[in-house]
Design a protein that fits this description.
heterodimer; A: mainly beta; 7-stranded mixed β-sheet; 0% helix; B: 5-stranded antiparallel β-sheet; globular
Chain lengths: 113, 112
């Protein structure tokens, strides 16, 4: 069964460093997303991406964040200068249609120290 | 952001009985609803969805009911199995939107 894969599964970084979280969405999907879940809190939407551009972003997704689809298979989330409060599980998701079912990856646990 | 609410943090059910998980929403623009299941250290796994043009959708042991006038949906699991023990999230999206809005989740424990 096709699945969304994320690497790494766990990333520890020092405050102020840049991190790149990587995702391989399901191959025939056209819509890509990043969500995050801070420990003990809800799963929160960060950004959606379609046709090589951001289609929607949340207030959380400020200038420190960027997304890219560098080739036909990868989808990345970059955090330029990490803060302690960026520590969370980051989930990549993809869907075939805009309002279709979003399939999630297993997540990357980001720990900023 | 309290647009999607799951007011029961946890639910405990005996194996073989029915589990009923509830979800309320406030935004009348939501028209597509999904339930996800999540195990620790894993991503959410899609279970079942329902469009606002329906009031019921069934898939095996899982049935989702939607009451638009009450802005309420529920997930029924019959019969419940120990492997169903997980966190269940309700999520909603709007017709012209791109994102899912999640509830806080309900921890389901199925006792054998």
């Amino acid at each position: 069964e096709p699945e969304v894969t994320q690497t790494p599964s766990h990333q520890v970084t020092q405050m102020g460093q840049e991190v790149i979280l990587r995702c391989v969405p399901i191959s025939n999907h056209l819509y890509f997303y990043w969500y995050r879940q801070i420990l003990g809190q809800k799963v929160e939407f960060l950004v959606s991406f379609y046709n090589n551009e951001i289609s929607e972003k949340s207030e959380i997704f400020d200038d420190q964040f960027s997304v890219e689809r560098p080739d036909g298979s990868n989808f990345t989330l970059k955090i330029r200068s990490t803060k302690l409060e960026d520590s969370a599980m980051y989930f990549c998701a993809s869907s075939e249609e805009r309002q279709g079912v979003a399939f999630f990856g297993q997540g990357t646990r980001l720990t900023v120290v | 952001d309290q647009q999607v609410k799951q007011n029961s943090p946890s639910l405990s059910v005996q194996e073989g009985r029915i589990s009923i998980l509830n979800c309320d929403y406030t935004n009348s623009m939501f028209d597509y609803f999904l339930w996800y299941k999540k195990y620790p250290a894993e991503g959410p796994t899609f279970l079942i969805s329902i469009s606002s043009i329906k009031d019921k959708n069934e898939d095996g042991r899982f049935t989702v009911f939607l009451n638009k006038s009450a802005k309420h949906l529920s997930l029924h699991i019959v019969p419940s199995q120990p492997g169903d023990s997980a966190v269940y999230f309700c999520a909603a999206s709007m017709e012209y939107g791109n994102k899912l809005v999640f509830g806080a989740g309900t921890i389901l424990r199925v006792k054998s």
